[in-house]
Here is the input.
Amino acid sequence: MFGKVKQLRRGGKRLPNHEIQSSNYVEGEVRVYGLAGVIVACVTKADSQVADPLIPLLYDAKLISMHGSGMLFKGEERPQGDAGPAFIQEWSVMVENS
Here is the structure.
């Protein structure tokens, strides 16, 4: 599904509301899938053949709430190559009508 995504945390800590409101959305194809027994969410360019993520993947992704065209996902962001500890991340997703 095509949507707009905002990350709500940095380093595991929730961003202040004013910072969330002023930040830009990442627009792209939002996909949720199973990978080796783990639910993963990703955002890629809608027309991408390679599907490189636009923001870090969300592991153990859970749908926390959904209302109208908005969703809140919560999971774990892991540094690339396991180069450090994982931390909690939340995504605010606004689904675009096609």
